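Changelog entry

Holo records now carry the ligand SMILES as an explicit input line rather than a separate metadata file. Below, a converted record for pyridoxal-5'-phosphate, shown in the new format.
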Amino acid sequence: MSIPTFPESLIRPQISGIEGYNPLEPLEGFSARVGLLPEHLVKLDANENPYGPSPRVREALASLERYHIYPDPQQTLLRQALGRYVGTSADQIMAGNGSDELIELIARLFLEPGDAILDCPPSFGMYAFAASIQGARVLQVPRRADFSLDVEEIERTFKRDDGNTLVRPKLLFLASPNNPDGSVTPGDDLRRLLALPVVVVLDEAYAEFAGETNVGLVSEYPNLVVLRTLSKWAGLAGLRLGYGVFPPGIIAHLWKIKPPFNTSVAAQAAALASLADAAYLKAGVQRIVEERERLFRELARFDFLRPYPSRANFLLCRVVGRKVKHLQCALEEQGILVRYFTRLELADCIRISAGQPHDTQSLLAALERFQAAGT
Ligand SMILES: *Cc1c(COP(=O)(O)O)cnc(C)c1O
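Structure line, unchanged by the conversion:
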């Protein structure tokens, strides 16, 4: 490594040492690479909603007359509507530019260089990313082979005392259902973890697909934060609207560091229109859950695929006896996008989002061709 010269030499040393977040390949890039128009692609790689947003979102955005006015920094109407939706007081809620922004704000609130978080991989990459920007260490307690949490090992992290090297993690990040496998953390495990001297950040991005939430526990535990989003169930991934449910002792300080205009006029209006049409969107969620179950049964019939049971809108699938690279080529040729992994323990896995029935048909046809080709 060469010694940086001015002005790079002024950049925080913690930043020089980290790798950037590796986002998905943009749709236009993939489209050009495989030589198919974007509308002919089958996009099953990012857990997006195949039915899109509520039609009321389009209407609300088309008739919006406040694009030239700054958004309400206090998100008053939106927080009231979100409070009604999840059954908590609006005072406990803050919205963000996606729940990704709330992960970053929580990291900024708690972490300085030398602090640590606890991550339970494989899970969502944003937790370690946000912590490393703060210069914090990422302690890992990997999940077991079935992706359940190793609660005993997590507890040991707080008891371990190897001289003065003890770094107690301040934040424990958990996703339930977990991304990439879709498993849910049982309530007993969660309560044991909440008894630890740590803030538990429970990411429930897929709660609507699982049909259960722990939002109600936030008023019971001063160390529980629950994150939710409209990206998946409400089809607003492109507009960026997530939110958190926080205990009073945390949200008071979070307001002090929130960028005033973090959620746009369009995102706030789209979220309000979605919440007003929740029954319509929930019917879409139901269709996606049914498609996930059908997809599971269909995938399990291929002898080279081992899908894991999932409560989210995607399935993690181990590929056995065939090379993932070969499968990737076969799917890309047909314009089908799924998620691949670089982590060693997931290198032989793919993650497939539940799409519309015709998406499943295209995928199954490509898999049958791949099976028949036998490479
Ligand atoms: C998709 C996803 C999110 C959503 O993030 P947004 O910023 O709200 O789009 C959050 N957490 C997990 C685990 C996810 O998979």
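Spot-checked after migration. DSSP finds 14 helices and 13 strands in the chain. Residues 73 and 97 are 12 Å apart (CA to CA).
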